[in-house]
Amino acid sequence: MGRSHECDHPESVRSLPVCTRPRIAVDASIREIDRPVKESARTAVSIYEVFEETIERLEPTHILTQIQVCAVSLRDVEQAMARGMKGNPKIVSLQPDSLAEIWEDVRRVARALEIEAHGEEVVRQLRERMAALCPPAPATGPMPRVACIEWLEPLPELPGCPSAGETEDEARANIREAMGLYLAPGEIDLPENAKLFEVTVG
After folding, report:
1. Residues 53, 73: Cα–Cα separation, whole Å
2. Domain map (residue ranges) of the chain
3. d(C-alpha 94, C-alpha 96), whole Å
4. What is the mean pLDDT of each run of 10 residues along the chain (202 residues)?
5. What is the model's pLDDT at position 122?
6. What is the sign, positive or negative, of the torsion defined by CA atoms of 44, 47, 53, 57?
7. The CA-based dihedral angle spanning residues 13, 18, 20, 21, taken in that order and rounded to the nearest 10 degrees
8. CA torsion angle for 66, 72, 74, 78 (degrees, to 10)?
9. Bridge-based pairing state of the strands 62-65 and 90-93
10. Which pLDDT score, from 0 to 100, does residue 152 have?
11. Quick one: which of 33, 30, 97, 27 has its CA closest to 66?
12. Taking a C-beta distance cutoff of 8 angstroms, is the pair 161, 178 a contact?
């Protein structure tokens, strides 16, 4: 059994052979990481290296991959196989976009390993843990508003982002809507005497 360079949980997996490495400096700033990641997407050259000799030595029956860019992908492993990597492991590609799809991916891995009952038990335990973290929403009153932002630094500001209002205070209060309009296609028509404020996001 082997692992990717990023797999570190549970602690016991740290002793397993590492089968991949990043081609970029992972200790760089988010902005510095963002550039090669975007270049990789444009040129279709992976930012990860697969250690083919290590995988051959391990002789795996199955290889799990994740979504492209965030981790070693199906394409990375397929390219390694195409270069002559020995063996014929079954590749299971995981690309969930929601909790429901994560549960289904657990089931897919379990089916591939022919341990479906264990997969269902894992899903049941995980769903119970998630339910314990999510108390019922209040029957009355305002609902909580949550913003989940992961990739901050590549968008440090929106130059020229306009917010309109009859007063300066109103214009500043409308900045959330202005940011949404700025990122949407199309143009915003403003009166000639409108005041423009440049807002830095970060």
Report:
1. 18
2. 1-95, 97-131, 156-202
3. 6
4. 89 93 83 78 81 91 80 81 81 87 94 96 94 76 69 46 62 64 59 68 52
5. 96
6. negative
7. 100
8. -160
9. parallel
10. 40
11. 97
12. yes
